[in-house]
Structures are given as C-alpha cells and as structure tokens.
C-alpha cells in the first residue's frame, strides 16, 4: 500500500491525539478499548512480537506506552 508509506506520525502528533489528562501508560483493557480489539488479539500480537518496544511488564501486569504504541501502529501497522 503506497499510501501507508507516505503517512508517518511524529511523536508530537501522537501526543496531540489525546486529551492532556489521558494516562501515558495504559493497561491491556485500556488498549483493547482504545483500539476496539479484543484482549485476546492484543495478547496474541504481543506474544508474536508485533508490539515490540511498546509495552513493559511490571510484575504480573503489562503496561503499554500510549504514544509509542499509536505511532508504531500508524507508521508500521501490525
């Protein structure tokens, strides 16, 4: 898809997509709601390495870096 190659989202643009009060670290539930996908799809993408560099495991929880995740999905796809 040639159009996808032309569309690049900068870090600043990703930050401006959200209200200032929106948390920068998101839970699996919050990401699934934001992207309108199931949690099982999100778990699958993470285990396949498709979201590498967008999440951090803290104990039993996985938190996603909001701006990095959105930038990766728009710029690179899944």
Proportion of helical residues: 40-55%
**Rg from alpha-carbon coordinates:** 13 Å
In terms of structural class, how would the helical and strand content be classed?
alpha+beta
> With helices defined by DSSP (H or I, 4 residues minimum), what is the helix count?
5
What shape does the CA trace take? globular
Following the backbone from N to C, one meets helices and strands in this order, namely HHEHHEEH
Largest sheet: 3 strands, antiparallel
- Please report which band the strand proportion falls in: under 5%, 5-15%, 15-25%, 25-35%, 35-45% or over 45%: 5-15%
The tally of strands reads 3
Runs in which pLDDT lies below 50 for 5 or more consecutive residues are none
**First-residue to last-residue Cα separation:** 14 Å
**Major sheet: arrangement of strands:** 1-3-2
Task: Report the average pLDDT across residues.
Answer: 87
Keywords:
78 residues; alpha+beta; 5 helices
Describe this structure as you would to a colleague.
- The chain is α+β, with helices and mostly antiparallel strands and 78 residues long.
- It has helices spanning 2-6, 11-16, 28-35, 39-47, 66-76, and strands at residues 25-26, 55-58, 61-65.
- A three-stranded antiparallel β-sheet has the order 1-3-2.
How is this structure best summarized?
The chain is 50% helix and 14% strand.
Write the layout of secondary structure elements.
Layout: H1 2-6, H2 11-16, E1 25-26, H3 28-35, H4 39-47, E2 55-58, E3 61-65, H5 66-76
Antiparallel strand pairs: 1-3, 2-3
